């Protein structure tokens, strides 16, 4: 029986680093086990903000990867301000009151001249190449994944012209994601974003989202079927790790300026003052980008002497830190718009079997998952007393060599189980 072919149109692909690449790299790994042959279509010369060469080894052998050249405006923007173009491409936007004229100008151009995003010029040339590819390879379905949401416009054009079966995967929302409001959009530009979002959601045959909050949001825009397929974890080959001797609280990934849980820094400062043993044992590991704003907060709360700032490491290295840390820290911006964000690292945290301390908005989807799986505790940004009591409880368990977690029901978040869910849509 011949395998059904699906074309996956993505922007992030090894050697890109970060969580965006993991989702489809893992789906591609497991799809052949369900009699589906994935063909991957990605940019040839992308301007990835993070590079992780180790992920190249994870691309399954025998998978067809087709690359199409892309013109990246961030390279041109770099002529004006290399640092600002790079940080904006990562989604790092300076607080409004601290923005330079150059940054304000770049945000205005990004928001109003590149709709829906800076990769929009890849749509037309990719459409022409894929049109030929579909008939040549006898591909029955296409799948677009965003952000960047401009990739959904490729799916839109293919659907309109060829009536191909099209699934649109949203790893993040479109017009309600936090940074969207910071793009200095004109009214006409904001309207255009909404129109494109509505058109994509009402034209795709099926829609995939990564959270229940996004599913509810999109159900107000379209009657098309919307499936929640979260991110997940895979079997990682790492050597046996020994738990840290220090009371390590580790954050893996970017800790941007708006993800700054001052309530936690206040709790840790106070516990240090009240408990000399706690002060001697505490170590804060930051594995990934740490914004200057957060670093200043740590200094203001007298925590700098506890900080181990490691910067970006390979995915394999990050897994080691997760497994040997005493506690794992998950932070989200305190906003109504971020309730739908379920970071990909949550699932790696869960399978690392270390207690998770999550701090985010009220009603955050993460709280449902950590509660159901018994993998950690969620707090809001004003939960000082509850957070302090929990950290102290964890610390006492650490001192008694008894800091453990007993997860339940993790199997449904395994990448293979999630791929099985995907195959039902394809």
TrEMBL record:
Pfam families: Glyco_transf_4, Glycos_transf_1. Residues 243-397 form the Glycosyl transferase family domain. Keywords: Transferase. The keyword Electron transport does not apply. CDD domains: GT4_WbuB-like. It comes from the Bacteria. The keyword Nuclease does not apply. InterPro entries: Glyco_trans_1 (IPR001296), Glyco_trans_4-like_N (IPR028098). One of its GO terms (molecular function) is glycosyltransferase activity. Residues 122-236 form the Glycosyltransferase subfamily 4-like N-terminal domain. This is Glycosyl transferase family 1.
């Amino acid at each position: 029986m011949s395998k059904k072919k699906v074309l996956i149109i993505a922007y992030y692909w090894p050697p890109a680093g970060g969580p965006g690449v993991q989702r489809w790299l893992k789906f591609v790994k497991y799809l052949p086990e369900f009699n589906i042959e994935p063909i991957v279509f990605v940019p040839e010369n992308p301007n990835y903000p993070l590079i992780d060469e180790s992920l190249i080894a994870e691309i399954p052998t025998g998978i067809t990867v087709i690359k199409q050249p892309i013109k990246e405006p961030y390279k041109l923007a770099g002529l004006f301000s290399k640092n600002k173009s790079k940080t904006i491409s990562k989604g790092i936007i300076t607080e409004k009151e601290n923005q330079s004229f150059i940054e304000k100008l770049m945000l205005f151009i990004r928001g109003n001249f590149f709709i829906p995003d800076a990769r929009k010029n890849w749509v037309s040339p990719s459409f022409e190449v894929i049109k030929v590819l579909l008939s040549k390879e006898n591909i029955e379905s296409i799948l677009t994944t965003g952000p960047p949401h401009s990739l959904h416009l490729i799916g839109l054009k293919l659907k309109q012209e060829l009536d191909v079966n099209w699934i649109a995967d949203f790893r993040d929302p479109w017009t309600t994601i936090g940074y969207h409001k910071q793009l200095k959009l004109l009214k006409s530009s904001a309207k255009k974003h909404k129109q494109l979002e509505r058109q994509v959601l009402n034209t795709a045959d099926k829609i995939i989202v990564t959270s229940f909050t996004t599913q509810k949001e999109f159900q107000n825009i379209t009657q098309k079927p919307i499936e929640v397929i979260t991110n997940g974890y895979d079997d990682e080959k790492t050597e046996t790790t020994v738990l840290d001797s220090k009371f390590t609280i580790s954050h893996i990934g970017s800790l941007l300026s708006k993800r700054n849980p001052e309530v936690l820094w206040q709790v840790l400062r106070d516990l240090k003052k009240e408990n000399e043993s706690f002060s001697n044992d505490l170590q804060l590991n930051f594995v990934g980008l740490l914004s200057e704003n957060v670093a200043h907060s740590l200094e203001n709360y007298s925590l700098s002497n506890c900080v181990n700032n490691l910067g970006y490491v390979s995915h394999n290295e990050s897994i080691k830190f997760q497994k040997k840390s005493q506690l794992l820290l998950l932070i989200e911006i305190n906003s109504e718009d971020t309730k739908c964000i379920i970071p990909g690292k949550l699932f790696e945290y869960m399978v690392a079997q270390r207690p998770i301390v999550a701090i985010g908005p009220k009603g955050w989807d993460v709280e449902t998952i950590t509660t159901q799986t018994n993998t950690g505790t969620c707090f809001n940004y004003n939960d000082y007393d509850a957070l302090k009591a929990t950290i102290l409880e964890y610390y006492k368990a650490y001192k008694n060599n008894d800091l453990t977690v007993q997860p339940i029901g993790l199997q449904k978040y395994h990448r293979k189980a999630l791929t099985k869910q995907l195959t039902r849509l394809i």
